Request: fold
Amino acid sequence: MDSASVRSFERVDFYTDETILDDPYPFFEYVRAEKGPVWIDPNYNVAFVTGYEEVVEVLREVELYSSCNAPTGPFPGLPVPVEGDDANPVIEAHREELPMHEFMVTMDPPQHSEYRGLLRGLFTPRRLKENEDFMWRLADAQIDRFFDRGSCEVIQEYAVPFTGLVIADLLGVPEADLGKFRQVFEGQTIGGVGEGEQQILADNPLAFFEQTFSDYVVERREQPRQDVLTALARGVFSDGSVPAVDILAREASFIFAAGQETTVRLIGFALQHLGEHPDVQQGLRDERALIPTFVEEMLRLESPIKAYFRLARRTTTLGGVRVPAGTTVMILAGACNRDPRQFEDPHEFRLDRANVREHIAFSRGVHSCLGQPLARSETRITLERMFDRMGDIRISEEHHGPAGERSWKYLPTWLFRGLDTVNVTFAPTT
Reply:
């Protein structure tokens, strides 16, 4: 890395600098090369972790690193400073003051294990197979909406409604209600919802899902059926106690938000890559068995979540760096998934990468993503049906410019890595 690049990156604020939105990877390389795989940024007292081995250590050592700040990091951080080498008393005293404390993503064992157990039944092989059957039908129905036009905007016309409706089906939303869910995913006004409720939905997109699933849980507890919602409503903690309705509704809503967002971005990057690399596209068309490997390599190259966090419970050493108790630890998935110590030629796309499934796009340990088999199936089936019905998928020059001079818009956030739009053209095949 040349001295000019080093000087420019020294002034970068990861959370506010728009210069690294489109391509954060040179900045990640700068941090790893110049600061090491673990570096404590003095501006925010955040430990940047860009090394693969170091990230794995953080994710596995739940006794050393709390998830209480997992989605928010240093903003706002603990309300009082930590003194000494043990942050546990401060964490437990102020946990409920931290954002999203009531969601499973911020919980630590054993509470996290109890809440995760309530949802584990949704991801059984049998349930996933039933859900996969739904995906094949839905993929065709979604493609039908733009098929005759020979073009589409992948994110809003396909990925957002497709992933949302897949999760709705997984959670057991009755077929009669799927139309209402589609309206939400497509940004339409929901029929039968009053003006005041529409404003609540606009202010808090999760409000619709929380209220809807609260109603489902109450109804199934009073009138059980042979369906997934009844199984969810009947879930109990290990001591036999019954979770409050709002607990189940909240976690179901979070599955929508987290699962949909990440898979939408994965599908977007997959179509961008295929449109830009017709040789890769043709190779996958000819040998469909390579599609799962392609999906893994896209997850490694373009991890949908840029950063998630932990909090050091006790003073410890990570990657040779002293990490004081109470320090925010930032896991940079996009950086560790391109760590040259772990992945050969890390910035290159390679379908023959032997260790591709070692990426950390879905996290590791107790907080590994429950929905990762779902995301893989959604993307694989999407590509299968698009290859079946959409020939010669190309990037739209009208929207993104000619090859070599493309214009792409990325999400303006330090949290997610994703394309805002992906416009493609294709030749209908059936």
